[in-house]
Design brief:
The chain is an alpha/beta fold and about 230 residues long. The chain has a domain at about 15-175: Rossmann fold (3-Layer(aba) Sandwich), CATH 3.40.50.620. It is about 45% helix and about 10% strand. The protein has 10 helices and 5 strands. It has helices spanning about 1-15, 25-35, 55-70, 80-85, 110-120, 150-155, 160-165, 190-200, 200-215, 225-230, and strands at about 20, 45-50, 75, 125-130, 145-150. Strands 3-2-1-4-5 form a 5-stranded parallel sheet, sandwiched between helices. Strand 1 (about 20), helix 2 (about 25-35) and strand 2 form a beta-alpha-beta unit. The N and C termini lie far apart (about 65 Å).
Length: about 230
């Protein structure tokens, strides 16, 4: 039984696959449902789980999986806490814990929690489908031929995606956020932080503890305590 699983895994790695990189967002969800509706080739549907998603996201993924009657595979990399509390091994911060990733330039959380786990899944020759809407086409990687952008090919905007989900009987649960992502991301805007503070008190409490533990706080020249006081004044 074990050898059979190993063989199947090896065969999967050797073959060239059509893989949907499913973020769980409204655009990605609309793309996936429409691809299935059009009978486009899909070999795997991958969700990279940082373990830092909002609770509604996990419920939504179950709802989408049930709707399409297909398995959505969860993969994950290193844990947030391991890297947050781990120490810098070189540079001017040598010996300090990393704390929050810097908001400017590339950071360790995207590399370790998103990119590396996905790189282990994708093989040379695979076709990767990404759910980037037509009105955000500036985000595409133009020179990388392994990526496909169905929404851009269909000229579907973010609103088109929402309308399509509605027609399919699905209501995206996180529309209160302009952009969804990890609940503790220091790159989120002030409106998202306000929603986090008001609607998710347990997560807000955890975020404040992380800020206290981080050697450079949550983000430069910004304090969650001051933000909280300002919102409550």
């Amino acid at each position: 039984m074990k050898s059979s699983k190993i063989q199947n895994s090896m065969e999967l790695k050797m073959s060239k696959l059509n893989i949907v990189s499913f973020s769980g967002g409204k655009d990605s969800s609309a793309m996936l449902l429409r691809m299935i509706e059009l009978n486009m080739p899909i070999d795997r549907i991958i969700f990279c789980d940082t373990k830092l998603e909002f609770p509604e996201m996990y419920k939504w993924i179950k709802e989408v999986s049930k709707k399409i009657n297909k398995k959505i595979e969860f993969i994950s990399g290193e844990s947030w806490d391991k890297w947050f509390y781990g120490k810098w091994t070189r540079g001017k911060h040598l010996g300090e814990i990393r704390g929050f990733p810097f908001v400017i330039s590339k950071n360790w959380c995207m590399r370790e929690l998103k990119h590396k786990p996905m790189e282990k899944i994708f093989n040379s020759g695979d076709i990767i489908y990404l759910g980037i809407a037509y009105n955000e086409k500036q985000r595409i990687q133009k020179n990388n031929l392994k990526y496909k952008y169905p929404l851009i090919e269909w000229k579907w905007t973010e609103q088109d995606c929402l309308d399509y989900l509605k027609r399919r009987g699905l209501k995206y649960p996180l529309l209160k956020f302009k952009r969804t992502g990890c609940w503790l991301c220091p790159k989120q805007n002030l409106q998202s932080l306000k929603i986090l503070m008001n609607d998710y008190p347990d997560l807000w409490k955890k975020l404040k503890q992380y800020e206290k533990d981080s050697p450079h706080g949550f983000k430069p020249n910004f304090s969650l305590k001051d933000f909280e006081l300002k919102q409550n004044s």
